[in-house]
Write a structure and sequence with these properties.
There is one protein chain. By secondary structure, the chain is an alpha/beta fold. About 35% of the residues lie in helices and about 15% in strands. It is built from eight helices and seven strands, in the order βααβαβαβαβββααα. It has a seven-stranded mixed sheet.
Length: about 200
């Protein structure tokens, strides 16, 4: 998993509340267990018309936001079913950080396991960030995980809280497998000790 330290990138405003995981990645795209290729289906029902052409009104189809790495979204982001394909699709598109006033628990935890930083801010802070993000090509935010700060284009700073363990994992690029591998030496020693004491097992 890629480390998340400091991210400076275009922020796209998407102030829609109750964005569920089916809106993030529709069920038609759940036939794969691969983490790549899902970016094309991100927000598919909003991004594309029935004939498959792009919806020019959707924020991520606008020229200024096609390479957005930060999404500033409405309340209760990631609600609905617990599909891990939702953070996979965001990451494959290029989104490394989602900012909202609240997240569904399962989606929130899945983000950390896939290298995405979900940040919870206060309603008034979200309004400020949405205003920053509305500036198109000038909608650049800097997210500093170590300092737990979001820095806006005008020099404003918003502090955010994050669980210390989740922060450690993102800073060091550790998913569940990576955390296990950190203990590889201890696991190997235990297995050797067990094999020596129980040769019949």
């Amino acid at each position: 998993m890629d480390k998340f330290t400091t991210l400076t990138g275009i922020a796209a405003p998407y102030p829609v509340v109750n964005i569920d995981t089916d809106m993030i990645i529709p069920k038609d795209y759940l036939k794969t267990i691969k983490r790549t290729g899902l970016g094309s289906g991100l927000f598919a029902e909003a991004r594309f018309k029935e004939d498959g052409s792009e919806n020019p009104d959707f924020v991520l189809n606008k020229p200024a936001y096609r390479k957005a790495e930060i999404l500033v979204a409405g309340d209760n982001f990631g609600c609905g079913s617990s599909r891990e394909h939702a953070p996979w699709a965001l990451l494959d598109f290029g989104i490394r950080c989602v900012i909202s006033t609240s997240f569904a628990d399962i989606f929130y935890n899945n983000c950390f396991k896939n290298g995405i930083l979900p940040i919870v801010v206060k309603p008034d802070e979200l309004e400020k960030l949405l205003d920053d993000a509305s500036r198109g090509a000038n909608a650049t935010l800097t997210v500093d995980l170590a300092a737990q700060e979001i820095r806006g284009p005008d020099g404003g700073v918003i502090k955010f809280d994050i669980d210390a363990f989740k922060k450690h994992c993102l800073l060091n690029g550790l998913d569940d497998i990576g955390l296990t591998l950190e203990k590889a030496a201890s696991i190997d020693a235990f297995e050797k000790s067990t094999a020596a004491s129980r040769p019949w097992a």
